[in-house]
Amino acid sequence: MKFLLVGTNPEHTGAATHFVALAQALAEAGHEVGVVTAADGLIEQQLADTAVQLHRATFRNALDLRGFAAVLRAARQLRPHWLVGNFGKEYWPLIVIGRLLRIPVVLFRHRVPPMKRVSAWLLPRLAHRFFAVSRHARRAYLQRGVPPGLVQVLYNPVNMALCRHDPVQRSAILRSLDIFGDPVVLGYCGRMQRGKGIFTLFDAATAAMAQQPRLHCLWLGDGPDAQALRERAAAHPLGNRHHFPGWVNDIHPYYSAMSMLAFPSIAPETFGRVSVEAQAAGLPVLASDIGGIPETLQPGVTGVLLPPGDVEAWRAAIVAMCDPSRRQPMGVAAEAFVRERFSTGVIAARFVHLLTAASTSKAGSTGIPPHRPRGRWRLPG
């Protein structure tokens, strides 16, 4: 099968990471994959040395004619069976191009905040497939009036090879951070802002450090509250056990340096890719019981769900996870859980199955028939 994925957003976002992983998953599964993306952006950089065919373009907005022309050229060259979009500013261009070339369109929605009213009503009905990246997100779309038959769930794929534990990398990273001996390292990866629960985690981890002399905390990321967090650490007697490498483009090697991961958001998350990646690396996850996060782990088996913002509950959980007899079996189970549920091969197969399976509810609600080879399907009307 042939796919043309369009993603010209140059920024490092969760949607961009999903885009890269999905393109790689489909290519690894033997499908022919083309990608239209921005020059020198994260997507192009990470797909440069793969079997994916790259085409450069940028959509400054939904009416950018140069973006339209670039996608039309790529589509006529590849003759894809499906057009796939991940970013809001490209939803409408793909719908229009799909109609012009008679190629069915797949749209992924990565955010829960509502789209504009007209787009929110029309896009799920005009796209041949409309995917949410979690059940939590799907529920939000249904509550806004999208018919249940129009929204399916497909989780983020994770490349297990990128997340594989590497003891050599672990030693090198710990030495670079001046962490010696046999430490227990609690990791955080993400944006440094209050809604991510960073101050709850700091207070809980610091209190746990008073009980666990081997415990360190590794903070990866940046954001509007990063400086306040560093200042809080600098003012605390145990602050030297908090380590701040800053923003890291590729966090995968750092999973090897961690013993467990914290995902302490106090605001709802659509999903939680970092939780899945950490488990793929054999790390148990301590996570807030909010939004789509619970869908990323097996509570009590691969990690622990905790009340958002509850410092004492988080402190107790961190202390408990410092015990290797609790932590290590969870890490083994975590790696197996991700391999069976979120690995690239599993998600690619699930994606293709959902595309090729007959969808009577979809056809009946939009007038668009099920998929036919080489995009030869009738326009409704």
TrEMBL record:
Per UniProt, the enzyme's principal EC class comes to: transferase
Q: Look up the signal peptide feature and give its range.
A: none
Q: Where is the Glycosyltransferase subfamily 4-like N-terminal domain?
A: 14-160
What are the record keywords, sorted?
Glycosyltransferase, Transferase
Query: One GO MF term, please?
Result: glycosyltransferase activity
Enzyme Commission number, as recorded: 2.4.-.-
Per UniProt, the ranges with Basic residues bias are 371-381
Keyword Lipoprotein listed? The answer is no
Annotated segments matching region Disordered:
361-381
What single Pfam family name could you report for this chain, choosing any that match?
A: Glyco_trans_1_4
Q: Does the keyword Transferase apply?
A: yes
**PANTHER family, alphabetized:** GLYCOSYLTRANSFERASE
From the Swiss-Prot or TrEMBL record, give the protein name.
Glycosyltransferase family 4 protein
| Native source organism of the sequence | Rhodanobacter sp. FW102-FHT14D07
Upper classification of the source organism reads: Bacteria, Pseudomonadati, Pseudomonadota, Gammaproteobacteria, Lysobacterales
